[in-house]
């Protein structure tokens, strides 16, 4: 990688962020596509967010990615929002278009791109959790023409989740069904009718726990996905595979949301296969 007076910057902004895989992914992509760019990780305090966004213009950067806790806080500093960012209420990619800062959310697109030979239009989806990742997946599913969505959260989170689903219904006319995760019979019922089951909670990161009881029976053709990629195979995915179901972890989502951002910044396609190889060697 040659750094000179023409090198343009991009960065991921979050706290904490030093452990991020994003610099590895994007710098590999800059190199592979012979793009004169460099990608850094900036760990900043909340009070510096406005100034950091202003620096995108000041230094004529490609843009930035955002992770926790700044995906929502960044919105007031931007000039425009894409459809999916407005619907999700969170931004993970800011693009500097000749000084105009546009917020996108590539998480949902990245998630669906990571599912092998699967399209969500006219399909039914069950999703566990209602945090940032879940919101981006369900908003994207609605934009892509999903036919029905069941969201399961712990009963203590029901009231917190409802306003967001109401907002989505007001904006799209699409009604998302909300249930308590503790209601096992309804969970079984919904999963039995689904084409896609997604764990969008952090349950399983410990390598021990699973968000659903093992007594649940999966329909044969159901595709099962987990947004977690460390561990590479969560207990949830292991359980799905033991029933003979296709199962996908979250590494593809990480890679393809980055690929969407890279294309928005550079107009070039990220060589995902090459980078995927290096990522799986790192995590498997």
TrEMBL record:
Alphabetical GO biological process terms: amino acid biosynthetic process; aromatic amino acid family biosynthetic process; chorismate biosynthetic process; shikimate metabolic process
Pfam families according to UniProt: SDH_C, Shikimate_dh_N
Binding sites annotated in the UniProt record for NADP(+): 83, 129-133, 227, 250
GO MF: NADP binding; shikimate 3-dehydrogenase (NADP+) activity
EC category name: oxidoreductase
Domain Shikimate dehydrogenase substrate binding N-terminal residues, every copy: 12-94
Superkingdom, taxonomy of origin: Bacteria
Catalytic reaction annotation: shikimate + NADP(+) = 3-dehydroshikimate + NADPH + H(+)
Cited PANTHER family: BIFUNCTIONAL 3-DEHYDROQUINATE DEHYDRATASE_SHIKIMATE DEHYDROGENASE, CHLOROPLASTIC, SHIKIMATE DEHYDROGENASE
Description of how the protein assembles with itself and partners: Homodimer.
Full protein name: Shikimate dehydrogenase (NADP(+))
Encoding gene, per UniProt annotation: aroE
């Amino acid at each position: 990688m040659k750094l000179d007076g023409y090198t343009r910057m991009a960065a991921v902004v979050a706290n904490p962020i030093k452990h991020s895989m994003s610099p590895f992914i994007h710098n590999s992509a800059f190199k592979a596509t012979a793009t004169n760019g460099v990608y850094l990780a900036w760990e900043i305090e909340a009070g510096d967010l406005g100034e950091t966004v202003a620096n995108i213009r000041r230094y004529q950067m490609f843009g930035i990615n955002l992770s926790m806790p700044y995906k929502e806080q960044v919105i007031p500093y931007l000039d425009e929002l894409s459809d999916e960012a407005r619907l999700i209420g969170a931004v993970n990619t800011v693009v500097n278009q000749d000084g105009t800062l546009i917020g996108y959310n590539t998480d949902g697109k990245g998630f669906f791109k990571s599912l092998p030979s699967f399209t969500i239009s006219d399909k039914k989806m069950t999703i566990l959790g209602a945090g940032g990742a879940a919101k981006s997946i369900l908003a994207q599913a609605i934009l892509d023409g999903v036919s029905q969505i069941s969201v399961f959260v712990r009963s203590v989170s029901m009231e917190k989740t409802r306003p967001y689903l109401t907002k989505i219904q007001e904006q799209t006319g699409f009604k998302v069904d909300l249930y308590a995760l503790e209601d096992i019979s309804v969970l079984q019922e919904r999963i039995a009718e689904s084409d896609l089951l997604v764990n969008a909670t952090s349950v399983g990161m410990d390598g021990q726990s699973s968000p659903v009881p093992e007594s649940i029976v999966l329909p044969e053709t159901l595709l099962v996905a987990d947004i977690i990629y460390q561990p590479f195979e969560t207990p949830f995915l292991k359980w799905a595979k033991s029933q003979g179901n296709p199962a996908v972890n979250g590494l593809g989502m990480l890679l393809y949301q980055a690929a969407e951002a890279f294309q928005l910044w550079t107009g070039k396609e990220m060589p995902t296969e090459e980078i995927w190889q290096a990522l799986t060697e790192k995590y498997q």
